[in-house]
Structure formats: structure tokens, C-alpha cells
Amino acid sequence: MLTDGPTYEALLYDVEAAVARITINRPEKRNSLSWTVMTELRAALAAAKADPDVRVVVLTGAGDRAFCAGADLSGMAGDGGYAAVHDARGELARLFRDMWELGKPIVARVRGYALAGGFGLACACDLIVCSDDARFGTPEIDVGLWPHMITVPLTRSMPPKRALELMMTGRRVDAAEAERIGFVHRVVPAGSLDAAVDELTSVLAAKSPAVMKLGRDSFYGVWDQAAEDALRLLHPLLSVTASTEDAAEGISAFVEKRAPVWKGR
Asked: How far apart are CA 36 and CA 122, in angstroms?
């Protein structure tokens, strides 16, 4: 069943079959990132996080030209002074943190261009499914800028020196190369994009939401840690996970050769 969610100025938000779909709704601007878009994305993610009926989030852009073409350079100059604009630029970093701390899987559905901040936004998602006409790149260098804020999601999604090469050259990467580099998880014809995303989200939504949250949180929690430090954190988390009702249900269902019925706790 499709349910309406909060109303936004620059986004569309709906929930169906345990999946919240967040759409940047600025096709005339190639779904570029304005201050409003970033703030509303954070609000939409908060709504999805708080909704117990949501198990998976899909992030996409309206139309067929772009997932997100980066910052709206014409509308982000700001008139609040240097300090205010500097703080506002941190909204993208805050958005990335919200994504990694969501506790629920996020799938990027990419059609067309994913450039600059839009490239980083896609890479900040857990998985990327894209159409074969998708194009990725970091063109900031060509206008005398550097993609500072997306360095972390890019270097977490591909070999760091590959990310550096893309940032230094500004060249575009097609879908086939994106899959080969490893930051895209599946490439499909444009006409099959929605079906591929639905297939993936249905798989993710069928898992235990409690274990998904614990596991996903642990993944991001140990990402930058040394192995020994990571193991110290993961060891007690194994005991926490094993003590959940869903773990007991999963084991019982396996023994009884039936589908598990998750309670999310």
C-alpha cells in the first residue's frame, strides 16, 4: 500500500511495501543540491528513521536526465556572511552522517548524471543500482574548486587512488566503468531500473530489521578502525545480536524449515 509522507518543497516522499522512496524533485535543475534540498533530505531521512514501517530507503532524482548534478552553484552564494555560509556548507557532511547512522539500508537509484556532490550522495548510500546511461564524475576541478566534502564517501566506495584520479582529472565515468571500479553494484537497461531496484529492496526489506540495524551500525562503526580496535567492538556486538528475539526466531525457523517471522527486536 502506498502511503503519503511529509510534504517538502524540493522532494517527493512516499512509503510502499516497507520502502521509503525519497526523490529530489528539481528536474529542471538536474536535481542539483540547494540548501533547501540538503536540509529536506535530512528531514526525510529522519522521518524514515522514525517510521517503524520503513525498512529500506531508496534515494533518487526526478526525471531521466540526472540523479543529482551536484551543487546548485547559482543558488548557493548566500547573503548571511562568511561564517554563516561556511556553516551551511557543512550541511552536506551532516547529511552524510545522517545516512550512515540511519540504521536502515539506503539504495541509490541512479539514472543519468551523478556529478560532484551528487556523486558523493550516491556513494554515501549503501548500494547503487544504475541505468546503463548513468554518468558519474567530479568536475569541480574544471571550475577552480575541489570536491572536499565528497572525499570520504568516494574513498570508501572505490580504491582511494582511483577516487583521486577522478577528482584530479574531472573526467566522466560511464556505468560499465563504474561497475568495474566497484562503486556501482548493478547496471541495468534504463527500462529495467525500477524493477531492479524493487528486486533489491524486497530482498533487504525481508531481513530482520533489528539485526539489519545492528549489523549495519557495526559496519560503519568499525570502518576506519584498526583491526584490533574493530574486533574489540565487534565481539560484544555478536553477543548483543545473538540475544535478540529475531535471532532466536531465525534459528527456530531454520530448524523447523519455515520462513521466519521477524518482530524487529
From this structure: 18
Q: How far apart (Å, rounded) are the C-alpha atoms in residues 134 and 203? A: 24
- Print burial letters for 28-50: b (CB count within 10 Å at least 16), e (below 16): ebbbbbbbebbbbbbebbebbbe
Coil, strand or helix: which one is 218? helix
Strands ordered across the beta sheet of 113-115:
66-68, 113-115, 135-137, 172-174
Name residue, grid cell 550516491: 122
The pLDDT of residue 76 is: 56
Residue 213 corresponds to which amino acid? K
The active-site residue, picked from 16, 28, 101, 140, is 140
**Region label for 154, one of left (φ > 0), alpha (ψ between -120 and 50) or beta (otherwise):** alpha
Rounded distance between C-alpha atoms, residue 246 and residue 223, angstroms: 25
User: How far is Cα 96 from Cα 218, in angstroms, rounded to an integer?
Assistant: 17
Split the chain (265 residues) into runs of 10 and give each run's mean pLDDT: 74 97 97 95 98 97 96 64 73 95 98 97 98 97 94 96 97 98 97 98 97 96 93 93 94 94 92
Give the C-alpha separation, 45 to 123, whole Å.
16
* 140: annotated active-site residue: yes
261: number of Cβ within 10 Å: 10
pLDDT computed for residue 86 by the predictor: 74
Residue 87, pLDDT score: 77
- How much is the pLDDT for 75? 57
Backbone angles phi, psi at 3, to 5 degrees: -120, 145
Secondary structure letter of residue 149 according to DSSP? G
DSSP state of 27: G
pTM over 0.85: yes
Can you count the helices (H) and strands (E) in the chain? 11, 11
